[in-house]
Design goal:
alpha+beta, four-stranded antiparallel sheet, three-stranded mixed sheet, elongated, SKP1/BTB/POZ_sf, 276 residues, Potassium Channel Kv1.1, Chain A
Length: 276
């Protein structure tokens, strides 16, 4: 008997509610226990409360109450339910079920499921890569972990991304992230090595360069405005005066127009004028 068969048998024993799934035109049902759902999910607890009065008034005592779960398949719900019921063997998070656990765990606010997911991502961050077609694509898991509010898992993904290639931290890869995650990425870039760009990192047209101020000036060409992250006057390392709203940084002029090191610290963001 496979784990899902064992799980369904457990869920059907003395069940008091029938879950109704409808995804992509496919409908299915699954018996369950309202007490376990209420303890495991604030979203389902609220849904059960809303459906309680109407279901009890229209159903006989021999009929299970029905709770619709639109947009979720039976298979996906069984995947997360493994972590809600005491079954053997104990379920494990894997790269194969990770996305379902992240998406459904977030959708139904199942903190116990998300805790398992966060632990897996943190333990396996070293397996992440930067190939968009890879099942271990770091930015995919960063986006999903960020959407689920898994801050420690996000940091593990971000650390791996910066270690692999800091220049990959461009807006095309970070769009849609909550503000704190790109900020953490920038902090990691800044503390790893000075970074220079010819535009705000929130702009898809900007290019990143890592190295000294002199090398950045030569790379971008004389006369261009470029911006330094993790640089101090003279081109050394240090904190950057960045606006965390648009991730802009200290402006410098390629060719050494401002200071001998090519770096000029400023008190305001060059994009929005906000003091930093």
């Amino acid at each position: 008997m496979d784990s899902f068969s064992t799980l369904q048998q457990t869920m059907g024993t003395k069940a008091d509610i029938d879950l109704v799934f409808d995804k992509d035109g496919t409908q299915d049902t699954l018996m369950s226990h309202s007490s376990i759902l209420q303890l495991s999910s604030q979203v389902l607890a609220h849904a059960l409360e809303l459906h309680s009065a109407s279901s009890s008034s229209s159903s006989s005592s021999s009929t299970l109450r029905q709770l619709p779960l639109p947009g979720t398949s039976k298979a996906d719900f069984l995947t997360v339910a493994q972590f809600l019921y005491p079954i053997a063997p104990l379920p494990k998070v894997s790269w194969d079920n990770l996305e379902v656990l992240l998406v459904e765990g977030r959708k139904w606010d199942m903190q116990v499921v998300l805790a398992h997911v966060a632990e897996f991502l943190q333990a396996n961050a070293s397996s992440l890569d930067l190939s968009p077609t890879s099942p271990h694509y770091a930015f995919k898991w960063l986006q999903l972990a960020d959407a689920a509010g898994l801050s420690d898992a996000c940091k593990a993904c971000a650390d791996r991304i910066v270690a692999l290639d800091r220049s990959s931290c461009v807006s095309s890869n970070t769009q849609g992230l909550s503000p704190q995650t790109p900020t953490y990425l920038l902090d990691k870039c800044a503390t790893s090595a000075p970074l220079y760009t010819n535009g705000c990192l929130g702009s898809s047209s900007s290019t990143a360069f890592y190295g000294t101020a002199a090398a950045a000036s030569a790379y971008f060409g004389a006369g261009q405005d470029i911006y330094g992250i993790g640089v101090a006057a003279g081109g050394g390392g240090g904190t950057y005066p960045a606006c965390l709203g648009c991730y802009s940084c200290a402006p410098i002029r390629a060719g050494g127009r401002y200071t001998p090191g090519g770096v000029r610290l400023v008190r305001t963001c060059h994009e929005c004028g906000r003091e930093v």
